[in-house]
Amino acid sequence: MTERHNPGGRPPRDRPWLMRTYAGHSTAEASNELYRRNLAKGQTGLSVAFDLPTQTGYDPDHVLARGEVGRVGVPVSHLGDMRRLFQDIPLEQMNTSMTINATAMWLLALYQVVAEEQGADIGRLQGTTQNDIVKEYLSRGTHVFPPGPSLRLTTDVIAYTVAHIPKWNPINICSYHLQEAGATPVQEIAYAVSTAIAVLDAVRDSGQVPPERMGDVVARISFFVNAGVRFVEEMCKMRAFTRIWDRVTRERYGIADPKHRRFRYGVQVNSLGLTEAQPENNVQRIVLEMLAVTLSKDARARAVQLPAWNEALGLPRPWDQQWSLRIQQVLALESDLLEYEDIFAGSHVVEAKVAGLVEQSLAEIERIQEMGGVLAAVESGYLKSQLVASHAERRARIESGEEKIVGVNCYESTEPSPLTADLDTAIMTVDPANEARVVAALGTWRDRRDEPRAQEALAALKKAAAGDANLMPATVECARAGVTTGEWAWALRDVFGEFRAPTGVSGAPVAVAAEAGSALARVRSKVAATAGELGGRLRLLVGKPGLDGHSNGAEQIAVRARDAGFEVVYQGIRLTPEQIVSAAVAEDVHCVGLSILSGSHAELVPDVLDRLRAAGAADVPVVVGGIIPSADAAALKAAGVAAVFTPKDFGITEIIGRIVDEIRLANQLEPLEVPA
What we know:
about 675 residues, alpha/beta, 5-stranded parallel β-sheet, globular, disordered N terminus
């Protein structure tokens, strides 16, 4: 018996982390099939990707949802969708992570009701709602409500789950997208812990949780982090996170039980660093990044999900996701990693790096507290401008060659890749007709529900929101009554209002010097010369149509265009094509730049082109940037787009120069070559 469990006298193995794949697309039925297939392949938990309308509180038939339905995740508009999403998946036995923030309370209510319908004891449900609104203001852009009401929603979910769903993680404080937006390790730690402090202070001060149960609250706080390719630094970052969390929860909240103070985190490794050029290199990047959060036992992730090698090209196929799952399984099951204590214990190199990160992070946390806490630092624009500046500095290092990326700014020659020989089949595409089917199904749901009960539930929700009652019970009744995602969110919008977060562009410092002979100096000369010929300063509108909140690229274009001498019009995220065209005409811009990473470009970009023509501005060139497959890029150019930029176009200064060229071409000016 001993030999069977301990072959060759090897030490016993730790239990592996939860293995997940971030997935969901098209419809609840299609996503359910994908989940059941992934579970059959050995996945040990679910990670649900919701589409952008669901994340931002819109029904599929809303104007802003056009082109976004089922693109980057699954649309869940009501209880019927949630039932189909988890059909034949016993929720009492599942550990489900839901990447949802502004509408986290609503999706948790739907999940609870479906579990009850399955006969589950909700006290046994295990999983996580991300529910971190601060990073939405800073980096991801799926926020809806202002900071105060958003913190109330988070607080209410935490208080409710502690009392009714005690094994649930009601918040997953997420520094993942902060790193994607440019955060350094110190910023990632400091901003995440500052968010946790704001949340725990709010729960403590709400009076909804007895003081003696604050340990239970702290024990259910989890984190979701990013791991980049600098895996030694990333591993040290996780050890620093662990020490700081233990200190903050012990000293600030008096949590005595070490188990309650344990730093619990899941991870998705970095997608920002995945490249469109030589995408096969992404596999080794993913492996190195995974090692950062698994090698160190004392700071090992409790759950891991890996991106696919082709995410810089488009939506991964099931086979691509399987490859990422197998990477985890090989490490956990074939290697001897789980047989040893922490292999970095006693390393003076690691200890010195961790100590430095702890000291710097605590100093930044203190700086944020002196500003009045993380929400005040959000509203002042401090945090966002810091991230935009950090990201600009990183981009500048890549463009200068100081920071090497294999296949992008060094070792660019390559053999033809069989993985991308047929780009049209190297990624999965969502059927454009899918959206119409989802919208039609939503209409059928509304027609068949108990309308008086739905309206009564919404009225009760608004009444509770106007007072100080916990909003979770009213939300659960809305779920049972057949209320839709958009209706729930609009009821709260009526009470709380909406919020547009600072863009951080105006406060970002110059990241690239325009020294004589530099690339930026040459582009500045082109901008100045073109402006002189056209009789005024060049004006560029940077627009984010639809619901895509990934604004990092748009912000970097806006900052570099500003530094090159453009007057930049950038109003932030979540605009309709009509709003973008109205701004372009009102500001009399020379070029419109659209940034879309969600896959809705095929729907939204032609709409912008048509509206510009109708407004008499057909001569204004339109350029587009985003994750755009080659076939789609060709279609956009055929429709009238002047230029398409994808992740392979990493040189921002070069992009600005090409925008100037397109402005000259549109205005029938001679090509301009400015000497170095």
